Amino acid sequence: MVDTKRIWSLLEQVNDPEVPVLSVVDLGIIRDVKEAWVGGAAVQGGSQPESIPEIVLTPTYSGCPAMDAIRMNIRMVLLSNGYRDVRLTTVLAPAWTTEWMSEKGKDKLKAYGIAPPLPMQQVCHPGLFVREEAVACPHCNSYHTTLISEFGSTACKSLYRCEDCGEPFDYFKCH
User: Fold this and answer.
1) Are both 90 and 118 inside the same structural domain?
2) Is residue 34 part of a domain?
3) pLDDT tens string 123-132
4) Residue 37 — φ and ψ, nearest 5°?
5) Cβ pair 9, 17 in contact under 8 A
6) Is the bond preceding 116 in cis, omega lying within 30 degrees of 0?
7) If residue 88 lies in a helix (H) or strand (E), which one and from where to where?
8) I want to staple 98 with a disulfide (CB 3.0 to 4.6 A). Which of 53, 62, 117, 154 is the partner?
């Protein structure tokens, strides 16, 4: 029997390699933890089916380069805690959204110096960069900020600068 509650707890130890203050649970890419059955044969004398954990993931976007490292880190944490076999299933629909991030994760982002996604995106459409969002500086909380680049340290973030404190910062873009 798979202890899904324990596995959720173990997944809290797996950090996003691009934003190491966030666990994969904080990031919201873990969609489900459930029991899967493997093995067993329909013929007489076959092995009995075995229960293993199945982790269902949705990447922040389909080309996310961190997913291979995340999958490996999930396997390593589970292996070191006695889970020899695990099934990792990637699901692309529905697409990941910043709304799936935990509030704890958003607080961690701000403390780390990255502006967390807004509670309700102001501009989330194909013409996203036609108009800038009002993004608060994670350092001084000022909304007197300017978009510097549509792409920040990773493709899922944009780069801003605070006009009050002068600090540059990443902002999680609308997803």
Assistant:
1) no
2) yes
3) 455 455 445 6
4) -115, 135
5) no
6) no
7) strand 87-90
8) 117
